[in-house]
């Protein structure tokens, strides 16, 4: 393991602002509420602001020391509410990092390096409930909700143009398919969505560094990136670097799925340095604590793990409480059985003990923990299909109905809840997934992994799944869990993470555009305009991955002069359709037809004139002729 | 330019059979009708056959000399029909290769290298019509139709399983959305589809090397790859190599969009070495012949170019005859105007002359040429939207209606016809494209470029467009024109071609699966089964890109022992869900529950028993509790 001192170098590339971009902040109703956006300066003097998930890393004004963690965003807000208390917290154990006592020496060194990341945990005062849902239901608009509202709106320069042009742009208004997207998101709207369970704001009181964001069908579609070391490969540095890298490219959430040694300490590094909500699957760590023997899991070990992770600041837990003993037999005839790690662990436990899952029987006990820290549920789909042949089968839908029932229980405790979904689903079965989820889970946000629309594309499953993700995102899924090119094959590296994220930014953005989210098209329109006007640099800088766009262009035309050329290497100078179109317009203008309308009128007149005079040149009208 | 002798080296990689794969042939009704498939041998002794576009290149038994071209497939069939004659053909001119006389010396050397690729052209005897549609409408089942039928069916071992299991697999039967997919494709079915214009078999009588294939909504969804040098970059060798490379990875058709010098000679190399139909956009070459000045184009130059290319064996021509003078003004307010190269050339011509397009006024003259060689129309969408903001506008649909009218005229001449479609279309507007096309173009095959569902992903437009392509393919599009990662940025190289093709194989396959094409799922199911049984090599070999799948896996677990390991680097040995699922099944089996059904019954009984005895452990039923 390298010394932590190497982090600054590792992170250097991820700290560079994007080209021609700078961090800006939208001011809120209080001085400590400033919502980040990325301003992209165009060569024509305009600025386009885009949603920014990269946190303070891309703000050169912020000093960052990954050994001490990010500055707090929400600390004052949490303190002001006066319903939490700091406390000693659970005593750390060697087993938290998958260690036996004999390796405690190594562990001490490891933890020493993370000393600057230790915080005194907070919890709800006795009897209090500190979830955003609890506040929302009591009519309280929290700073987190205001933050989300400002963030969803962005600067809205472009949005205003679209709203005023609504009539003219009707064909582009989108089909929301049941979503209800207001032109402007107000803090009160956010509160209402959270109160009715249709959106969540994952924000553990022990993760004050988080920049609040919402997951819900009436907000922008979000994406999640998975990171995490495994027993086979990868280190803490790699994981922290992947976290920062993932948020740079647009991950709205990150799940730490570490399964090897050092899980606890890795999590300290990740949570303290993360501007986005962090999710985990606590059963992974619990299993490490019992030596990897599923049968040896107990409610007590699991409960202790929940508290451990809640104290560290994890924002949502995947809990596979829908994998019930009675459903396991439904997977017996499946082509690929149970493909969820957590689901298979619980299935094994249920089988071995011939008992109902302790996640199910202790579900209300879990709620009691969640609401003391505001950890949100991500109710896991342990019986999701692992291949298209198993899609939408009885095992999957039996579990989904259970998740709907558990949602009601969670909501009884005002615990924020989202529902995980598949997986592998052919296109014709996607809609049923969404409609069943909306119906059985009462519009709790849906959070799907893809789905992959075919099974035979390992190495390219980010593409096979982006197809399904875009479709289900349009239909109402609130967050899309990315799939990288390494899915089914190995752990993703840095470049795989980027590939997966961009594929999912595309899917989420395609969904936003199709839903008609106000302003979603603004980035596309600005880029298309730049394309038409041969502002190559603007075209690159407005793209989801400016580095790659520039590099691809420069492979064939590297000179600076090509950045203002009125053609590219695809067609060469004679064949550029956009150049010819501009010539057509200039030609018409030179004939005294000054603007678009005049060109149109002039051309129409000429065409009519031509028709009247030269009709004999036409082929017989097809209606008459064939 | 390198000597042609370097081709064998360049092509060596593309000639290697895929791992564990061999070429097999399905015999037809005559000795010279043998339809290629690729047999993939699995480690469990099974074989999976897949559709094979790679031609003789992947058959080690065939000697290939790219300086002489591929062996003839259809020569005897064409000759037997007795309705064609060979003739001297048009005399080649220096301008065919974009040359003035002063460079005739260079040209002679260029053409000398292609001497082995020259053929005496054939044409229909006077008064004859040699199109597959003409034969079909007269009730003739050609060998080409039989070939297509056998090719679409494949070996059908897997299909039979699906057909017999139809009842059990109902949820997986697909939603054909108006397509009519018979379980077995007969030659007569092919004839009927071609006769009614719902499918085409692009097969110029001067391209006897082609392995016939069908494009139609009731067949497998096909993909097209574009290659072609431009004035800025690339050489003949690169283009021939890209052709072979593209068919290796699954291109069903290839369009040669060359625009620089040496167009004619490049085309000789490409057509003579292509096992798949070749399409072109003849206006590109016509423009070269008039020095790149759109206004100088004439019907005579264009007509001469059509004959030139028809004699060389081009199988379909993109003709932008729907770009009418009266429609140009409809593009004046567009964000990106006209983005089709051919469309913009014709718009400029119309504007400059204030005349109707000669492609429109001479459409029946064009039909007369097409039917003498059986060149199919690909009616170009010159007014397709170049950004999502321009999607489904009046310019686009006015042109589409004209293409429908022109389809009727083409069909009057029995000329095979498909219709090109966009382009850039947000998801919510895709369905209207398909339904308008089906309605206005009378089910003539639709052939779309993507569509891209967003505009802001240059560098990743293969993904943004694969989403739209999969959706519109499901809805009825017959062929998907690929988009590479270089789209909008530069000319694709070898790896870009592969990336684009695999993205489109995914889209086309996802569409086939969703439509419920019989047998389409077989490859996915075989791969999923291999995945579940940890047959790693089979998993790689069944994938669309075995090389990449293997390489990605080996990045973290390179040892041979990992190819039989019951885990991978993603989760490590403790967390492999599939391994745990198998353990669950083994555990149940050890308890005397021998097969899936018994496991299911046994588990259900245990669960019931548990419920009866331990009901108090349950949380209150949600229906009652909240």
TrEMBL record, chains A, B:
Region (Disordered): 1-23
EC number(s) given by UniProt: 4.1.99.17
Name of a matching Pfam family: ThiC-associated
First-tier enzyme category under EC: lyase
Cofactor note: Binds 1 [4Fe-4S] cluster per subunit. The cluster is coordinated with 3 cysteines and an exchangeable S-adenosyl-L-methionine.
Domain ThiC-associated stretches: 17-85
Record GO biological process: thiamine biosynthetic process; thiamine diphosphate biosynthetic process
Cofactor: [4Fe-4S] cluster
GO terms under cellular component: cytosol
InterPro entries, per database record: ThiC, ThiC-associated_dom, ThiC/Bza_core_dom, ThiC/BzaA/B
Known pathway: Cofactor biosynthesis; thiamine diphosphate biosynthesis
Alphabetically ordered keywords of this record: 4Fe-4S, Iron, Iron-sulfur, Lyase, Metal-binding, S-adenosyl-L-methionine, Thiamine biosynthesis, Zinc
Binding-site list for substrate: 226, 255, 284, 320, 340-342, 381-384, 420, 447
MF annotations from Gene Ontology: 4 iron, 4 sulfur cluster binding; phosphomethylpyrimidine synthase activity; zinc ion binding
Binding residues for Zn(2+): 424, 488
Residues binding [4Fe-4S] cluster, per UniProt: 568, 571, 576
Superkingdom classification of source: Bacteria
Subunit structure: Homodimer.
Family: Belongs to the ThiC family.
Reported function: Catalyzes the synthesis of the hydroxymethylpyrimidine phosphate (HMP-P) moiety of thiamine from aminoimidazole ribotide (AIR) in a radical S-adenosyl-L-methionine (SAM)-dependent reaction.
Name of the protein in question: Phosphomethylpyrimidine synthase
Organism of this sequence: Comamonas flocculans
């Amino acid at each position: 393991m390298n010394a932590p001192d190497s982090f600054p170098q590792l992170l250097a590339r991820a700290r560079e602002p994007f080209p021609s971009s700078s961090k800006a902040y939208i001011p809120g109703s209080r001085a400590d509420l400033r919502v980040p956006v990325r301003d992209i300066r165009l060569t024509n003097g305009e600025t386009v602001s885009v949603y920014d998930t990269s946190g303070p890393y891309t703000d050169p004004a912020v000093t960052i020391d990954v050994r001490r963690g990010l500055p707090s965003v929400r600390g004052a807000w949490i303190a002001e509410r006066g319903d939490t208390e700091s406390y000693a917290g659970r005593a750390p154990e060697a087993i938290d990092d998958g260690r036996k006592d004999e390796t405690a020496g190594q562990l001490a060194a490891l933890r020493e390096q993370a000393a600057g990341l230790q915080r005194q945990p907070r919890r709800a005062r006795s009897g209090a409930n500190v979830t955003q849902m609890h506040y929302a239901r009591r009519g309280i608009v929290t700073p987190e909700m205001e933050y989300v509202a400002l963030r969803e709106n962005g600067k809205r320069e472009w949005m205003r143009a679209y709203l005023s042009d609504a009539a003219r742009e009707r064909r582009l208004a989108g089909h929301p398919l049941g979503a209800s997207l207001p032109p402007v998101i107000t803090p009160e709207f956010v509160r209402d969505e959270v109160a009715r369970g249709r959106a969540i704001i994952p924000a553990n009181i022990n993760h004050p560094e988080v920049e609040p964001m919402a997951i819900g069908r009436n907000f922008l579609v979000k994406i999640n990136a998975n990171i995490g070391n495994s027993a086979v490969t990868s280190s803490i540095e790699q994981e922290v670097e992947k976290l920062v890298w993932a948020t740079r490219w647009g991950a709205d959430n990150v799940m730490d799925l570490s399964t090897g040694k050092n899980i606890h300490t890795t999590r300290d590094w990740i949570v303290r340095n993360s501007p986005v909500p962090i999710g985990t699957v606590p059963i992974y760590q619990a299993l490490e604590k019992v030596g990897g023997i599923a049968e040896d899991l107990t409610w007590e070990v699991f409960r202790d793990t929940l508290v451990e992770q809640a104290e560290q600041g994890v924002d949502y837990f995947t809990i596979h409480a829908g994998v019930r003993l009675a459903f396991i037999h439904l997977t017996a005839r499946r082509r690929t059985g149970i493909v969820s790690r957590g689901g298979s662990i619980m299935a094994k436990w249920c089988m071995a003990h011939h008992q109902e899952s302790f996640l199910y029987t202790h579900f209300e006990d879990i709620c009691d923990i969640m609401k003391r820290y505001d950890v949100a549920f991500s109710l896991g789909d342990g019986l999701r299909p692992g291949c298209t042949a198993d899609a939408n089968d009885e095992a999957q839908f039996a579990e989904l109905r259970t998740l709907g029932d558990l949602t009601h229980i969670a909501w009884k405790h005002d615990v924020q809840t989202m529902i995980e979904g598949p997986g592998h689903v052919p296109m014709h079965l996607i809609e049923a997934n969404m409609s069943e989820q909306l119906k059985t889970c009462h519009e709790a946000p849906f959070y799907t992994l893809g789905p992959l629309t075919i099974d035979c594309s390992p190495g390219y499953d980010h593409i096979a799944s982006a197809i399904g993700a875009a479709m289900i995102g349009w239909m109402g899924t609130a967050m899309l869990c990315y799939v990288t090119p390494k899915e089914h094959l190995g752990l993703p590296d840095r470049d795989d993470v980027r590939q997966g994220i961009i594929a999912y930014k595309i899917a989420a953005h395609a969904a936003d555009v199709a839903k008609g989210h106000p302003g979603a098209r603004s980035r596309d329109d600005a880029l298309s305009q730049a394309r038409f006007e041969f502002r190559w640099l603007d075209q690159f800088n407005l793209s989801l991955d400016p580095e790659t766009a520039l590099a691809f262009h420069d492979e064939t035309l590297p000179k600076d002069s090509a950045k203002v050329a009125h053609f590219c290497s695809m067609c060469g100078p004679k064949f550029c359709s956009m150049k010819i179109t501009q010539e057509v317009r200039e030609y018409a203008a030179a004939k005294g037809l000054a603007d678009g309308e005049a060109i149109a009128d002039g051309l129409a007149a000429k065409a009519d004139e031509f028709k009247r005079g030269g009709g004999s040149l036409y082929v017989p009208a097809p209606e008459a002729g064939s």
